[in-house]
Amino acid sequence: MEATAAAPSRARVLQAFRSRDFRLLWTGQAISLLGDAAFLVALGWRTFTLTGSARSLGLVLTFQGVGTISTVLLGGALADRYDRRTMMLVSDAARFVVIGTLAVVDGTGHVSIGFLVVIALFEGLATGFFTPALGGLIPLVVEEPGLGSANALIGLARQTSFIIGPTVAAVLYGFAGATVVFAFNAVSYLVSFGFVRATRPRAAERATPEGTLRDIRAGIRYVTGVPWLWVTICLFAFVLMFQWAPIQVLTPALVREHFGLGVRAYGLVFSAIGAGMVIGSVLVAQLNLHRRRGLISYLIWILNSVLVIVFALSPWFAVSISAAFVRGICIGFGVTIWETMLMQLVPQQMLSRVVSLDWFGSLGLTPFGLLLTGAVSGLAAPGTLIALGASVSICIISAGLLSKQIRTID
């Protein structure tokens, strides 16, 4: 009897794989995300070594973020009105061209900070259309009971990519330079295109067309009427500004200046986070939480910020890597809970717009954080600045627990 009950529990995380279309979508995303993770490491190290300045990396990442938030609201409105699969195909094709161009230019030795800024901007623009379309497509290839499994498996692919991708980037970068890593990422978009094209999702419940701007406003009205949505989106705009932005900009300097290590150690940081994220995503699917998910996720994010402080200030690289690993568990757990709540609690005809508003709101202040971090990077040690941002984030997340709906939402 116990064995019979245990089998469904073990298989719960794999439930979404019963859908042929989800298997295709997942495979394409797993490959594309692997390319993205490798690209992130190569872009960061290539930018930092090109100038030796954290400010340059902050500028490149700022334009990437500006590109994404410039199109994500439009992408959400269009994805609730038009075919989400087609939008994903167009975005994948555009990103293949953009990153492929970067690989060619870098291979000829003519890459510059200005060119990296332009590439980052266009990559961000295409991603802004892709993300809400993907968020809205998942419920069309998986039945509602399998959404927790689907989000965990997408998270698993994302997190596994952060284990393998940085290692791939470090090895390829060390032996052949950034060009090969950029080319690898470009090809991954082409592979994703093929798998997405093979899917046959159900027809979506369409929103009544009111014009693009009115559709966006309708999405904003919906979000502002749901406290757990708007409170979380607004608070995490500041969390990402004060915590995520310094981590992205200053980690290369932390690895090189604080620990005296190179690109392989830099990649190892991302791999440790990715390994933890895999565990966090699987835990959510296996636990199948339905009670107090808001409270649980907020407590997890507070713990994540504490671990950022440990990561940034530890004098021992082994301790920092351990903190990064446990941080990964927190991130995987928190993100998977959030995405599952969106897909289960938001009406289907609003889902892509809510996903786009989540991205727009959460990332809206990030470009300012990236620029600010670059501007103050010379005023203190990188670890000190990262820890300061995490300390501010603890206060911000804690303030969210003053909301009764955050504490009680299931």
Describe this structure in words.
Helix 3 packs antiparallel against helix 13 (about 350-365). The model is unreliable at about 1-10 (pLDDT under 50). With about 400 residues, the chain is an all-alpha fold. It has one domain: Growth Hormone, Chain: A (Up-down Bundle), CATH 1.20.1250. Helices cover about 85% and strands about 0% of the residues.
Topology:
Elements: H1 2-11, H2 20-51, H3 54-81, H4 84-107, H5 113-141, H6 147-176, H7 178-198, H8 212-224, H9 227-258, H10 263-287, H11 293-313, H12 317-345, H13 351-363, H14 366-376, H15 382-400, H16 404-408
| Overall strand count | 0
Q: What CATH architecture do you see?
A: Up-down Bundle
- The CATH topology assignment is Growth Hormone, Chain: A
Name of the CATH superfamily? MFS general substrate transporter like domains
- Which range does the strand content fall in? under 5%
Main sheet properties: none
Query: Into how many domains do the coordinates divide?
Result: 1
Whole-Å distance between the termini? 30 Å
